[in-house]
Amino acid sequence: MSDSQTSGSSEAPRRNFFVRAFTAALGAFLGLVPAMFGLLFFFDPLLRKRKKGSAGAAAGEKKDAEGFTRLDVKLDTLPSDGTPMAFKVRDDKYDAWNLYKDVEVGTVWVRRTADDDVVAFSTICPHLGCAVDFRAGRQDFFCPCHTSAFDLEGERMNDIPPRGMDRLATKVNDQTGIWVKYQTFLAGRKEQIATDE
By C-alpha distance, which of 53, 48, 50 is closest to 69? Predict the structure, then answer.
């Protein structure tokens, strides 16, 4: 056997090794890139940093840095006798990978107090989550699902609901109006536990 045949036969396995190693590395790279983007897409809702409002409360803002949402009402438009009024709350809603801008997220009962402050309650009954209505004739809040009743301060008037109506934090600004920190709470519990929506 000649030297040229010996060196040619030893180069063939070495060449095959480099071709196989290059092919394996290229295949791993081409498989890793889509897998990485797939994982990023899957974990995006957990990694996404949600936008927070700016610190002030300018006239054009809908939500501030503390999580308060501006209602389309000013204090002087609420009845001075304390009659509650229902207002829709609009906000940006996150649903996994989707963002819905300026959609209705709930409704609140707002009433003016004797000292010109405001009180806001969730319209969701703390018993089973039905909608609470206001009965002007009886001056109370009423849930028709299981005849739960609440007074104007949100306190339960019978033992059906486990707690009073869910009171929401509010603040009043003379220029921008009434702001409410809208939250939802777990139904059927004695404690007021906010849900993470």
Answer: 53
Please, where are the H alpha helices in the chain? 3-47
C-alpha 125/C-alpha 186 separation (Å) is 10
* 82 Rama sector, left if φ>0, alpha if ψ -120 to 50, beta otherwise: left
- The CATH classification number of 69-180 equals 2.102.10.10
How far is 183 from 150, CA to CA, in rounded Å?
A: 19
Q: For the chain, report the end-to-end CA distance as a whole number of angstroms.
A: 79
* Domain locations in the chain as residue ranges: 1-48, 69-180
pLDDT in tens, 137-186: 999 999 988 888 999 998 999 888 899 999 999 998 878 888 999 988 98
Average confidence score pLDDT of the chain? 81
Mean pLDDT for 44-60 is 52
Cα–Cα distance measured from residue 36 to residue 69, given in angstroms and rounded to the nearest whole number: 37
Angle at 121 between CA 118 and CA 114, to 5 degrees: 25
**pTM for the full model?**
0.67
